[in-house]
Specification:
Order of helices and strands: HHHHHHEEEHEHHEEHHHH
CATH superfamily of the largest domain: GAF domain
Number of helices: 13
Number of strands: 6
Length: 392
């Protein structure tokens, strides 16, 4: 495969000062028109003599040729101007096209590097089929909310396995790829979650925010197992103000809070740079940025991340009416393909059918009630025992 420089050199170059190839034909056309008009000019001159000598027949023919000459000259000049304008437009269009080709040629090497392996779609289809059959089986058996949450944890493991397949890094262990659900707890649902709060000012409590996004023990998995002990449980604040502040800066953290409030993906290819991003693009204090920096330095297994909202199933096409019930988080370390931002964006779109399955598993009111129990610190030990099943 040619390298970037050779690919660029292979493209033709348009010189700014080069004369168009069509200028000479246009000039020749105008000159031939003038030569063709010589007889008319002679006849016109004869008309002047005829008019002076009172030869009326010469006068009539002369006026006819005079009008014909004028029409011919004007028509050829207008045609020449139109041709030159078209040539200028064609040259500008050619330069624009070549510029786009250069840009695409520069993107081509990165596009090739960010493509998954050839059999990825087959693997993804297999993982999705497992998740879909599991969801259908649960519907037929009238499952309890605990069963649905246990199934959701199996789906999380499948998502982590799919992420590993996309990255295609044979040197990475399965434990390097994790998936989790951060459950949304409205204000007042988790009054004892204050010890779990991270990245907030010391004087703030759970009641200081619109709600919390809680990462509970029962909804974490890796590509190797349906449990993930490497990432601790914690809660992130969801602020009450759902718009940007001064200078259009953010008032919330990137990742799960941004995915929840913006109802869009939030990705970071290098979490080591997140603290700098928080300082430059948010109104949060330097203390919170320092906490973000310390967290990722202490958890080296999370070098990249992706957060995607999970919506309650609805037929509405209005995004404002979609209710976010949780945020799906993916994280990994020492990635190969997923070290590129373009690859992470592509993976985010691949996640869509899996998010639909999670929404079906977690979207009923009974399961929402159990989710609220799950995020409540007082029920943590009880629910942890309910999830203590052997992997099937």
């Amino acid at each position: 495969m040619p390298n970037r420089s050779s690919a660029t050199r292979s493209l033709p170059v348009v010189r700014e000062n080069s004369a168009p190839a069509t200028d000479e034909p246009n000039g020749a056309l105008l000159r031939s028109s003038c030569f063709a008009a010589v007889p008319s000019v002679l006849l016109s001159a004869t008309s002047v003599v005829g008019f002076w000598l009172k030869w009326e027949i010469f006068v009539a023919y002369a006026w006819f040729f005079w009008v014909l000459l004028s029409f011919t000259v004007v028509a050829h000049i207008a045609r020449d101007w139109a041709k030159q304008a078209h040539d200028r437009w064609a040259r500008d269009e050619q330069k624009t096209t070549l510029k786009r080709l250069h840009e695409q040629a520069e993107l081509l090497p990165e596009t090739v590097r960010t493509l998954p392996r050839a059999d990825f779609l087959n693997q993804m289809g297999g993982y999705y089929e497992q998740c879909r059959l599991l969801a259908e089986k649960l519907k037929q058996e009238s499952p309890t909310p605990v069963d649905a949450l246990y199934a959701a944890r199996k789906v999380l493991k499948a998502i982590a396995q799919m992420t590993r397949a996309y990255d295609d890094n044979v040197n990475n262990a399965p434990e390097s790829y994790g998936a989790s659900l951060m459950v949304y707890a409205p204000q007042g649902v988790c009054p004892t979650c204050d010890p779990w709060l991270v990245f907030v000012e010391p004087e703030m409590t759970a009641d200081s925010f619109e709600g919390l996004l809680v990462l509970a023990d029962g909804l974490k998995a890796t590509a190797a197992a349906e449990v993930d002990d490497t990432v601790p449980s914690f809660a992130l604040p969801v602020p009450k103000i759902e718009n940007r502040g001064r200078d259009k800066k953010w008032r919330w953290l990137p990742g799960a809070p941004a995915a929840f409030l913006e109802k869009e993906f939030s990705t970071f290819s290098d979490t080591a740079a997140m603290a700098t991003w928080v300082r430059e693009n948010t109104e949060l204090s330097s203390r919170i940025a320092d906490d973000v920096d310390a967290y990722f330095k202490g958890h080296g297994q999370v070098t990249s991340m992706l957060a995607a909202p999970v919506f309650t199933p609805t037929a509405s096409q209005d995004r404002d009416e979609w209710e976010v019930i949780a945020v799906l988080n993916l994280h990994w370390t020492n990635a190969r393909v997923l070290s590129y931002e373009a690859a992470i964006d592509a993976l985010a779109h691949v996640l869509y059918p899996f998010r639909v399955v999670l929404a079906e598993l977690l979207g009923t009111q009974e399961i929402k009630d159990l989710l609220n129990e799950l995020v409540n610190a007082e029920q943590r030990d009880l629910l942890a025992n309910k999830f203590a099943r052997s992997d099937e």
